[in-house]
Amino acid sequence: MFKILTLNNISVAGLDRLPRDHYEVASEIQHPDAILVRSHNMHEMPIPQTLKAIGRAGAGVNNIPVDRMSTHGVVVFNAPGANANAVKELVLAGMLLAARNICQAWDYARGLHGTDAEIRKAAEAGKKQFVGFELPGRALGVIGLGAIGVKVANAAIALGMRVIGYDPDITVTRAWQLSSDVQQAASLDDLLSRSEFVTMHVPLANGTRGMIDPKRLRAMREGSVLLNFAREEIVDEHAVADALSAGRLRAYVCDFPGNALRAHPRVVMLPHIGASTLEAEENCAVMVADQVRAYLEEGTVHNSVNFPEVEMARSPGSYRLAVVNANVPNMLGQISTTLANAGLNIVDMLNKSRGELAFTLADVETPVPAKVVGEIAAIQGVLAVRTL
Predict the structure, then answer these.
(1) What is the mean pLDDT of residues 227-240?
(2) Does residue 319 register a pLDDT over 90?
(3) Of 31, 239, 251, 269, which sits 20 to 30 A from 309 (CA to CA)?
(4) Of the candidates 247, 145, 255, 141, which has an alpha carbon nearest to the alpha carbon of residue 193?
């Protein structure tokens, strides 16, 4: 029986993927094998010794101490692309909000007083201050062409926009999904100088923190619109305030409220609702529940942020061993030798590495005794070992 701790409300659609005859799932549970989490901050949380996996029902993992989990041999999964359509739709909505001054016009209309005739007269007199523009023919720059960025780019093409993309690390899979009408930017500054709308879809990392700074804002076209549905820290908000006041930016639309820009009339702030749809929450929960289950039962690793991709068909009638270890020389040799010394014949083995971590699956003909598991666990550099 596997024990699963939930730190947030996880969609029932995901929890239903964990059969109750093999999984105990609760928000308060001792000695969990895995944790399912959305936004709960785990950085100060003690790590249960029994923990093997964490499933983040979303894309970002900033609330999880990934490096610390790696040192304990704990795999961390996320759900890339599961909320992509939800974010894409909000980005499109954000462009329309900015282009048509919808929020400002709504506030104006809600503030009108008097009889119906007086309100209608005031509305007609005041509407000229909310004149906007249409999207077809406008240039959208998309920074980051992952699951969300590709969907945004393709949708903008369908709306008749010109789209410029920039992602030096685009994968082959995403490149195949991207419309051939998307133009390639030579650099980030090239994209900024050619775009009337700019939207960012990159993770928060050392290379992206403060990416949109005063210098980059000066490179943008005058009167452009900046959209941030990625991470708050990617944008220097004080620099954005200066760019708005100087007229460099027409509008800033983001999903991260804060005091620096909260009261600015050309800013639309939303309360982090990019992935807040029933469909996205279900998709994320289903994806991470399936990933955690596959890891616990078979040692399969898909969509991990710290482990290599691993999948090996189980050899008929075999017994499986899973080992997480530091990616250093002779680890595989020591593991194999320990199994051989115990008289255990290996029928299949797969070893993959990622950065400083390596993960090994070994199918053997007979059950692995607890004594042998202990001997492998005692090898210097082995972080975790278990039988499946």
Answers:
(1) 95
(2) yes
(3) 31
(4) 141
Residue tagged 């666990």 (tokens) = 377
- The helix (run of H) or strand (run of E) holding residue 26 is strand 23-26
**What local confidence, expressed as pLDDT, does residue 59 receive?**
84
Give the domain ranges of the chain: 1-82+275-306, 84-95+132-269, 308-379
Ramachandran sector of residue 110 (left: φ over 0; alpha: ψ -120 to 50; beta: rest): alpha
Round to whole Å and give the CA distance between 40 and 278: 19
Question: What CA–CA distance (Å, rounded) separates 211 from 18?
Answer: 40
How confident is the prediction for the chain on average, in pLDDT? 96
Strand ranges of the sheet holding 34-37, from the earlier edge strand across to the other edge: 23-26, 2-6, 34-37, 53-56, 75-77
Q: 77 with 291: CB under 8 angstroms? A: yes
Domains 84-95+132-269 and 308-379 share a fold: no
In this model, does residue 166 exceed pLDDT 90?
A: yes
CA distance 43 to 165: 34
What digits encode the pLDDT tens for the residues 293-311? 999 999 999 999 999 999 9
pLDDT band at 204 (very low <50, low <70, confident <90, very high): confident
pLDDT digits 0-9 by tens, 13-47: 999 999 999 999 999 999 999 999 998 999 999 99
Helix axes 84-99, 147-158, angle to 10 degrees: 50
Give the Cβ contact number of residue 61 at 10 Å. 20
In this predicted structure, the answer to whether residue 60 has a pLDDT above a threshold of 90 is: no
Pairwise CA distance, residues 374 & 225, whole Å: 59
Taking the alpha carbons at both ends of the chain, their separation in whole angstroms is 12
May I ask the CATH class of domain 308-379? alpha beta
Burial (CB count <10 Å: 0-12, 13-18, 19+), residue 54 = buried
Q: Does domain 84-95+132-269 have CATH number 3.40.50.2300?
A: no
Domain 1-82+275-306 has CATH 1.25.40.10: no
- Using a 10 angstrom Cβ sphere, with 0-12 exposed, 13-18 middle and 19 or more buried, the burial of residue 282 is middle
